[in-house]
Amino acid sequence: MGTRTYSSYSADLDISSRYHPQDGAASFVLPTFRAAVDYATGLPSALHRHYEGLLPVHPDTLAVLPFDGEPGPPLTVVPSANARTVFVSAVGGEPVTPHFLKLHYPRRLSRFTRRLLRPTIELHLWVARHLVDAGLPVLPEVGGGWVGGDPSSAWGFLVRAARPVTGGRTYTVPVFALYGHDKRAPSDPTLLEQLVERSGEPATPFVADRIVAPMVRLWVDALLRTGCPLETHGQNTLVTFDLDPVATTVLYRDSAVYVDAPLRARLGLHGPLPPANVIPRDVPMAADEVFSLTYDSFMGHHCLDYVAALSWSRLGVPPGALHAKARDTFAAATAHAPDALLPRSVFYYDDVLRDDGDWKLVDMGEAPTWR
Fold first, then answer.
1. Which residues lie below 8 Å from residue 58, measured CB to CB, with a gap of 6+?
2. CA distances from 67 to 31, 155, 194, 246 (A)
């Protein structure tokens, strides 16, 4: 609870109650179809064998986009907070290596309608490969498939690993699980409080050094190694941890991000670009404004502000100490950046929902807090 209050639309989920991530069943059966699926392998994975020639479809998608095909093996899945991304535990009733599927969902979740078209699938695979090649701690999309001959309208799915290529710890949760309250046990301490107590460490360095600084470094490292500003909000940013003793690592998931072509050129990164989300070819906004959207608004306002509020109210951690840690980390990580990366003020979406899914950025007139 308390994790869907960061924007005017964050709690909007156009989804049937049975598939709702909080109010629905703990798991459900996801249908698949045997079809002429064009399947692309982005990274080596044993998961590919489950999905070649198979199209998984969310039941709510079938209600608006019927698919006539031979039924394939049903998948046993658990909905994630994103609703259209599900955790797969079994294929045809047989346990498999746990992993995620990101599904085509032509209905609105939060601000946007969540279609998953071929250019976006190829974008995910391009970004995931570059993040992994850059040695960044991510849960990568390893493959994806689509149906339809028109590249602009072909739709499908993505396969995402549940563990990073190297490393990973016993438990992995999104960062919002650290400060959100358990709906089924609302009086329990938050996970962040429990981890701090279990570690025996003072709360201020725990939060500053284990959460804030790694998130800032991950965002900057990804930008300067790949030209991609990660969308490190509380759902996409993950904390993986062990308990005896408490050890933590910050990870990232979801490669549907922007790619700054001019910055890549300045960084000496060359080669083909993905078919979508390339600045400035596909994105008319200034790159620094998009960077502010992802850093100041997604990571700062949507995530770290909540971490700081909980840390102050329940653990006595001064917000200023976390802000200072973020500023120092950002300054050190960008010391050798090719030029100024972000604007002097914060940018965010205008408060308008457009039928075509378009979006605009506006200057919020606020000084950044986390850099």
1. 19, 30, 84, 86, 103, 104, 105
2. 11, 12, 46, 47
Give, in order, the Cα–Cα distances in Å from 262 to each of 122, 286, 325.
20, 11, 30
Token pair 């059966």 in the structure block, residue: 29
- The radius of gyration computed from the CA coordinates of the chain, to the nearest angstrom, equals 20
CA angle 217, 221, 222 (to 5 degrees): 120
Measure the CA–CA gap between 250 and 91, rounded to whole angstroms: 30
Can you give the pTM of this predicted structure?
0.93
Q: Is the pLDDT of residue 213 over 60?
A: yes
Q: Is 9 part of a structural domain of the chain? A: no
Does residue 100 sit in helix, strand or coil?
strand
pLDDT tens digit string along 10-28?
667 788 788 887 778 889 9
Closest CA to 172 of 118, 248, 83: 248
Are the beta carbons of 83 and 15 closer than 8 angstroms? yes
Beta-carbon contacts of 70 under 8 Å, excluding residues fewer than 6 positions away, are 33, 34, 35
Q: Are residues 216 and 80 in the same domain?
A: no
Q: Residue 255: left if φ>0, alpha if ψ -120 to 50, beta else—which one?
A: alpha
Q: How far is 162 from 355, CA to CA, in rounded Å?
A: 34
**Residue 23: domain span:** 17-161
